[in-house]
């Protein structure tokens, strides 16, 4: 898993780390029960604060993507299919909201947008 941080993005570093690890888990790049780098090791490799790394890991644990084993570290939680489905539904809603916003800005009505979706669905 390669992690890249952009100090110029305006997005807090812990959020960048959180989003990239979460994406790696959802995509299957990182498998269930696979150990993540230690908090200290990752902080050292990325040249960031241990607190920043811990915050990202804690958020992922809180959302059910990771679990902690005392004295062993953090591991990828087995995929909860309902959690995964909910995450995908949130992404779909976000994309559809953006499509509706763009359609309204271009004067595309609901029927035309629906027709576009139907055509895309058939592909």
Structural class: mainly alpha
End-to-end gap: 32 Å
Helical proportion, percent range: 55-70%
By DSSP (H or I, 4+ residues per run), the number of helices equals: 5
Strand arrangement across the biggest beta sheet: 1-2
Largest beta-sheet characterization: 2 strands, antiparallel
DSSP strand tally: 2
Residue fraction in strands: 5-15%
Regarding quaternary structure, what we see is: single chain
Low-pLDDT stretches are none
How does the overall form come out from the CA principal axes? elongated
Nearest-integer average pLDDT:
91
Question: Could you give the order of the helices and strands?
Answer: HHHEEHH
Q: Which radius of gyration do the C-alpha atoms yield?
A: 19 Å
Explain this structure to me?
- The structure is a single chain.
- The protein has 123 residues and is mainly α.
- It has five helices and two strands; from the N terminus they run H-H-H-E-E-H-H.
- The chain has helices at 13-27, 39-46, 50-62, 81-106, 110-122; strands at residues 66-69, 73-76.
- A two-stranded antiparallel ribbon has the order 1-2.
- Strand 1 and strand 2 form a beta hairpin.
- Helix 1 packs across helix 3 (50-62).
- The radius of gyration is 19 Å and the shape is elongated.
- The relative contact order is 0.10.
- The mean pLDDT is 91.
Overview in brief:
This protein has 123 residues and is mostly helical. Helix content is 61%, strand content 7%. Helix 1 crosses helix 3 and helix 2 (39-46) packs across helix 3.
């Amino acid at each position: 898993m390669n992690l890249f941080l952009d100090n110029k993005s305006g997005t807090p570093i812990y959020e960048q780390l959180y989003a990239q690890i979460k994406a790696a888990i959802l995509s299957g790049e990182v498998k269930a029960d696979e150990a993540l780098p230690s908090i200290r090791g990752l902080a050292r490799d990325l040249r960031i604060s241990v607190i920043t790394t811990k915050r990202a890991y804690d958020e992922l644990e809180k959302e059910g993507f990771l679990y902690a084993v005392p004295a062993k570290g953090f591991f990828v939680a087995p995929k909860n299919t309902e959690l995964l489905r909910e995450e995908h539904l949130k992404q779909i809603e976000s994309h559809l909201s953006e499509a509706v916003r763009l359609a309204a800005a271009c004067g595309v009505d609901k029927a035309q947008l629906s027709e576009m979706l139907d055509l895309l669905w058939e592909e």
